[in-house]
Amino acid sequence: MAISMSRTTPSALFTSPIASPIKILKIPRVFWPWQKVKLGPMSVSPMGFGTWAWGNQLLWGYQESMDTELQQIFNLAVDNGINLFDTADSYGTGKLNGQSEKLLGRFIREFEGQRQVGDNIVIATKFAAYPWRLTPNQFVNACKSSLDRLEVEQIGIGQLHWSTANYAPLQERALWDGLVAMYDKGLVRAVGVSNYGPKQLLKIHDYLKERGVPLSSAQVQFSLLSMGGDQMEIKSICDSLGIRLISYSPLGLGMLTGKYTPTCNNLPRGPRSLLFRQILPGLEPLLISLKEISEKRGKSIPQVAINWCICKGTIPIPGVKSVKQAEDNLGALGWKLRPTELDQLEYAATQSPRKMLQNVFQTR
């Protein structure tokens, strides 16, 4: 999706039109227009924002009372040049299914109604491989439903949320042909995949290429906790084929924020708690290195972890559900870790006895 706008202010001071006690801080410009990166036919910010939490009550504790602050997060991001927002048609639990797309569309309209800004907004949404989506036309209809929720005419990047190769291989062809149809009908500007492992990534790239459809992006879990053999092979394939890797969970679901330690009593509730208890005890070398580098560089621990993803040539999409998180994430831009610091972090990451569990839907 592209929205034509013109910037009126170069900075990040924004007062929301919605009354709120939340104070939005003034943040210096974090990157310049020429530092944008290519993503298919579009130019996007070096980092995007993920909206998984927008509507997810089970994992992220979403409540509709958060919507005012979420709008402020969106405004703050766009004011600072962030123009890539990742969502999915399955984001939102229970009756809130699709809530993330609805909110994102609303925030864009309400922002436009207040002011004009200079960057085109790129929406990247993902289409779930539900078992009842068995034909290409059903994926086209899924795309049209997302367009309705977002209230836009075209999506920037239409992505398959996961591959069915591991459990329903006959459905896989319908997914691929669905992407081709979306692209040919002009419903999306570019296509991508999510949670595709190395072998399936090569297969779908070749399949789409034969049909004149370029594969623009591959989204996988990628961070200092997710840099195993498969993830690095995916990165290598993307580099060689001109596919942009989008790294989700760049903060390891929060384990790389420095907020949690093996002995702390404030672990998150819900499904994340069990994962944290399994992995955090072995993360001390990495957390120590993150803290050491953050103090030397005058940055926060999350900023260092996100910057590592940027230095590896990926576009990280950290999730945000508070203005404070958004402000901190923006500080990951406009600078780069030194080669020695990258080596230090990656060595420390290899010392962890337990790694982040990869998404169960990621194929080989």
Automatic annotation (TrEMBL):
> What SUPFAM superfamilies does the record tag this protein with?
NAD(P)-linked oxidoreductase
The answer to keyword NADP applying to this record is yes
Q: Which UniProt keywords apply?
A: NADP, Oxidoreductase
Among Pfam families, the record links this protein to:
Aldo_ket_red
Task: State the Gene Ontology terms under molecular function.
Answer: oxidoreductase activity
Q: Which GO terms describe its cellular component?
A: cytoplasm
Q: Which Gene3D superfamilies match?
A: NADP-dependent oxidoreductase domain
Q: Where is the NADP-dependent oxidoreductase domain?
A: 46-346
Indicate what this protein is called per its UniProt record.
NADP-dependent oxidoreductase domain-containing protein
**Organism expressing this protein natively:** Lactuca sativa
